[in-house]
Amino acid sequence: MKRMFLIAFVLGLAFSANQLPAQNKKILETKMILIKGGYYTPLYKKKGGSKSECIKPFYFDVHAVTNEQFLKFVKANPEWRRSKVSRIFADRNYLKDWRDDLIPGDKVNPLSPVVNVSWFAANAYCKWVGKRLPTVAEWELVSSGNFLTGSKSVINTNDKLIKWYSRGLPDQVNSIMSTGRNKYGVYDMFGLIREWTYDFSNMNINGVAICGAGSSGATDLTNYPAFLRYGFRSSLKASSTLPNLGFRCARDFN
How many domains is the chain built from? Predict the structure, then answer.
């Protein structure tokens, strides 16, 4: 984990020289929602930690980063083009649905979330636009806006989530803002793509595996979708790319 963040820090220094082009500002500006913070209960608490974590206010993109936006990024940062990216920072499936380095192609919707991008690429993009990747806690807090605690819709939503998580990899991804908006005003937290988080690799911090007795010690045994998200994040490497995995950005309130 420390090695991954050290590499990310070095990359961040390198990208500071590539300033955001003024002519691209409109395309790259994604509306952000102020999330006032709150309490997040991790599926597995850290050793010696409290059951709930206090999340400070932060800004959160209303939708995931699109192919159109990511194209601007790779044009300005050649080292992140498909033919030039180092295999240390992205596996061989990086941007595999694009026709070429700078041509997504007719089959790639400019307004669909960019997928087949690694954690390193997502982190670099967020730094380039003056933002950052959201933490797991922040992402989970915003995703809780899709639920109405104590109502029957929780069960229905969980059932739909489990079916969506169980689907195979998609051939194509729909446009952003196509799956509805939650109570925070954020779109597509579920039903479109999975998303990178900054600290995804902390998921196995206690050596917990989602199999057999893996639910032992969980804070909520009824939240099966949370187990699926936990297991998915635990399976990733920072260089991983998948056709259903993209990202969105966050930013500190202060």
Answer: 1
